[in-house]
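Note on ligand handling. Small-molecule inputs were canonicalized before submission; formal charges were left as drawn, and no protonation-state enumeration was performed. Where a ligand contained multiple stereocentres, the stereochemistry in the source SMILES was retained. For 2-acetamido-2-deoxy-beta-D-glucopyranose, this procedure yielded the string shown in the input block below.
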Amino acid sequence: MEKIVAAIVVCCSIIGLASAQLKVGFYNSSCSRAESLVREAVQQRFKTDRSISAALLRMHFHDCFVRGCDASILIHSETGDAEKDAFPNETVRGYDLIDTAKKAVEAACPSTVSCADIITLATRDAVALAGGPKYDVPTGRRDGLASDITEDRLANFRGSGKPDPTMDPGLAARLRKICGTGSDPAVFLDQGTAFVMDNQFYNQILLKRGILEIDQRLARDRATGPIVAGFAANGTAFQRSFAMAMVKLSKTGVLVGKAGEIRKNCRAFNPKRGLRV
Ligand SMILES: *[C@@H]1O[C@H](CO)[C@@H](O)[C@H](O)[C@H]1NC(C)=O
Ligand SMILES: *[C@@H]1O[C@H](CO)[C@@H](O)[C@H](O)[C@H]1NC(C)=O
Ligand SMILES: *[C@@H]1O[C@H](CO)[C@@H](O)[C@H](O)[C@H]1NC(C)=O
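Structure output:
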């Protein structure tokens, strides 16, 4: 999970004015159980699937970076041209957990809590369960009315994964073995504590154990090297920066007030107002 964590810490700064309308505890009076219902659903899932924390982080990040944090990533398209379809569906997962949380919240307070807020809250809770920071995150987001594969800048945005001379040779050999099996290979980008939200990623790239070349470069680049060294040396500093970056990320391009809608079903626009897809 550290790969996506590093991306969030490094690059979140695009925040619109609408985000000023988000409030910690937005649902205090309209749906006082909203946050606890989401948390219960996440806790339940985490008991049997610790990879859910990384999955939600990834979903939240990808949702926020296309059209803002508006749950457009959840829209299911019969024709295959929604934002969701730009990713192989095994890499952005957790849709069913969002459905479970949404169902619980709808039963308590119908048409009140947005899917965009549910993704944000569930990600926050899953990060804390994995040993990450506990932080307050503002809510009040509305769900978007469009989801389009062609806006997806991120589809061409992956690292190459090629072993290179800056990689620890032992690790390179092991990866060649895993990748030469013929089956669909998968390795953890964090070779140590893959299911724990910690600063190990930074220690590992200092030890030349980054899996992706682009990660490894973070440690060697003059601009990012000192940040990597600082986070590697001080886990508390990392956790604090991470929490602040997550709150910033969650404010990216949000819809508030009367914009957008509160979806009944996170995977579909509400009837009548549906535009595309
Ligand atoms: C909701 O309640 C919490 C805890 O009492 C408080 O910190 C927060 O400011 C409240 N938010 C709103 C919008 O009323
Ligand atoms: C992944 O996508 C394929 C093709 O759209 C679909 O048939 C399959 O059910 C999806 N799998 C999951 C787990 O959503
Ligand atoms: C680690 O970072 C925290 C938070 O920034 C800071 O308060 C603390 O003094 C740092 N510890 C060391 C040993 O530098």
